[in-house]
Amino acid sequence: MILIPILALIVGLLLGLSISRGGVDPTLAPYLSVAVLAGLDSICGGSRSHMEGKFQTDIFVTGFLFNILIAVFFVWLGLGIGINLMLAAGVVFGMRIFTNLSLIRRLVVTRYTDARKRKQLESELATRTEGEAVSGS
User: Fold this and answer.
1) Residue 28 carries which DSSP code?
2) Would you say 74 and 45 are in contact if contact means Cβ atoms under 8 Å apart?
3) Residue 137 lies in a domain
4) DSSP assignment of 59-97, as one string?
5) Which of 9, 12, 26, 38 is a Cys-bridge partner for 71, taking CB atoms 3.0 to 4.6 Å apart?
6) Digit-coded pLDDT (tens) for 27-84
7) Any domain includes 3
8) Global pTM?
9) Residues ≥6 apart with Cβ < 8 Å to 110
10) Residue 8 lies in a domain
11) Are 107 and 52 a contacting pair, CB within 8 Å?
12) 15 located within any domain
């Protein structure tokens, strides 16, 4: 399981180095941009499912790869028939990313407030227990 993130890190570093040295080939730029958005969408969705306790590695990996392949296919198809499907894919993935990030934010805030309430209740209970112990003596 640890091999997948390590391989992804190596591929990402190599891709980053190649981009920083000479930039992205203009013919590949539309494909790369949509592939990155699709990957970010999958990562946000995977993070959300992990926080909800529903994460499954096989579903994440296949969804990650499938999202990227479908996005690249739509860009290729759009360029072939003269329709800017890259813009449509960007809008859809952007909406999904923002939706997942808002749900992640909601989960984080809810967990934080629940932890604060729990800590406050435990503190009140400890104070009451100490008070009863002192008055009962």
Assistant:
1) T
2) no
3) no
4) HHHHHHHHHHHHHHHHHHHHHHHT--HHHHHHHHHHHHH
5) 38
6) 888 888 888 888 889 888 988 998 899 989 889 889 989 999 999 999 999 989 988 8
7) no
8) 0.72
9) none
10) no
11) yes
12) no
